[in-house]
Amino acid sequence: MAVKTPESVGHSRRWYFTLAAIAAGGQATALVVLSVLQFARFEHAEGRRYVPDALDQFVRTLSAPLLLFYPPEWVFWLRTYGVDERWLVPLFVAMNALLWGVALAGVTWWWQRSLRRGRLLGLERPLAQLVSWSS
Predict the structure, then answer these.
(1) Which has fewest Cβ within 10 Å: 26, 52, 96, 98?
(2) Backbone angles phi, psi at 7, to 5 degrees
(3) Is residue 86 part of a domain?
(4) Contact call for residues 30 and 101 (beta carbons, < 8 A)
(5) Which domain holds residue 119?
(6) Of the given ranges (11-25, 33-47, 114-128), which has the lowest mean pLDDT?
(7) Is 2 inside a domain boundary?
(8) Complete DSSP assignment for 68-81
(9) Cα–Cα nearest to 91, from 107, 112, 70, 111
């Protein structure tokens, strides 16, 4: 009788790479579409005051992982080297989407390999830190 160990549970590496690629593609598509909608709403406001709303917060959340560590202002030093800035936005979108895809695949891998008790303990630590940070 074979016993399932955490190493034998789950899927192959190819499955996780595929999951990461699908998640990255979906995130990049959503970010680009919502950014275009955000830009269109801003342009439609014309002379009126533009008030940020839920769409702006959602776009900010989707672009958070990469732009938290590398603000767009940091790329201005590339101008001195004659880098075409039109390639920077797609590069940032692709890198950001890759971070989201890897995070989803990593969480899925961890969830499938952890035991029920380990899952509860794994969820307990971040929730305890969130509670301690908020107070």
Answers:
(1) 52
(2) -70, -30
(3) yes
(4) no
(5) 13-134
(6) 114-128
(7) no
(8) HHS-GGGGGGGGGG
(9) 70
